[in-house]
Amino acid sequence: MKISPLKSALLTVGVLVFGAENLSAQEDKTTLSQDVKFEQLLAEKRKINTSITVNDRYKIQIYNGDSENAKKALIDFKKEFKSLDGTIVFSTPVYKVWVGNFRSRIEAERSLSDLRKKYPNALLIKPNK
Length: 129
Description:
This protein is elongated. The chain is built from four helices and four strands, in the order ααβαββαβ. β2 and β3 form a beta hairpin. The protein is of the alpha+beta class and about 130 residues long. It has a four-stranded antiparallel β-sheet with strand order 2-3-1-4, with helices on one face. The N and C termini lie far apart (about 80 Å). The protein has a domain of about 70 residues: Alpha-Beta Plaits, CATH 3.30.70. The protein is about 45% helix and about 20% strand.
């Protein structure tokens, strides 16, 4: 027995229409459970972000170049100078490694003289926001 294309199409449409009757969309009941530690971490991050001031602090730039070498320079720096913090800053098109967070120029210059022994191209900067 051969089914004509018209009957086949009507049969398909009929199955889809009657089959769709039993389908339902998702319910709008959503429950969000959030760990208490997440809120504590978020509050701590907000507190740290407000305390970071760039304008009134001096930094020392020890590297200026591509991303991979900037990462290597920062890792090498952290191994040798554990008391100073460091970060990589992207300033199109180069990556810079900035270290330290000095309140006064005199304090920064003392560290700069020590750092120049290993990083002869290090320079003192006072970045702006």
